[in-house]
Amino acid sequence: MLRHRAASATPINGKALGTAATVAFMLLTGCVSTPADPTTTLPGLGDCLNQVEMKKLRRALARCNEVVDAHPQQPQPRNERALLHSLTGDNKAACSDSLAAAELLKRLPKTPAPDPILVEEIQLRAKSCQVLTTGPATAAPKSAGRGA
Predict the structure, then answer these.
(1) Which of these, 55, 124, 131, 126, lies nearest to 87 by C-alpha position?
(2) CA-to-CA distance for 134 and 108, rounded, in angstroms?
(3) Which of 3, 48, 87, 106 makes a 20 to 30 Å CA pair with 11?
(4) Exposed, middle or buried: residue 77 (CB in 10 Å: 0-12, 13-18, 19+)?
């Protein structure tokens, strides 16, 4: 005896499917914002270290130069550019930016108070550069390879 099985799934209503697809499309495209026009907006204060890739440090440095140019009185971009210079091995440029960031930090208004972590980072980098840019200590330890 041959039996026919009834379909267990409910048939798809084409109109309902089309409506659901339209709603999904509207939701997805509604979440995507159009990119800002780069000719009318300045880089943001914290854009130096956005999406930095070690293989593309020169590109990151170029973008950071734009941020420094857009915010010349702010210490944060110079501090971030100092980090990028360090990563490229240019310690002289890194120290130049670190010391400049420390000077700019001193000129910031006291209210509102700058981010304490940023202040500490800038001061630490500047202090490191002051040690690096001064002559060797008079009581510097002798290297282990030389007779002592």
Answers:
(1) 55
(2) 27
(3) 3
(4) buried
Query: How remote is the C-alpha of 29 from its chain's centroid?
Result: 27
CATH of the domain at 63: 1.25.40
Q: What is the pLDDT of residue 147?
A: 47
- Residue 30 pLDDT: 47
Torsion on CA atoms 39, 45, 46, 47, rounded to nearest 10 = 20
- The pTM for the full model equals 0.58
Separation CA 11–CA 106 (nearest Å):
72
Residue 99 in any domain: the answer is: yes
Two tokens at 127?
A: 């202090």
Neighbours of 98 (CB within 10 A): 30
- C-alpha distances (whole Å) from 135 to each of 91, 126, 131, 139, 144 are 16, 16, 8, 12, 21
Q: Which residues contact 73 (CB under 8 A, 6 or more apart)?
A: 104, 107
10-residue averages of pLDDT along the chain (148 residues): 52 52 48 48 77 85 95 95 94 96 93 91 93 56 48
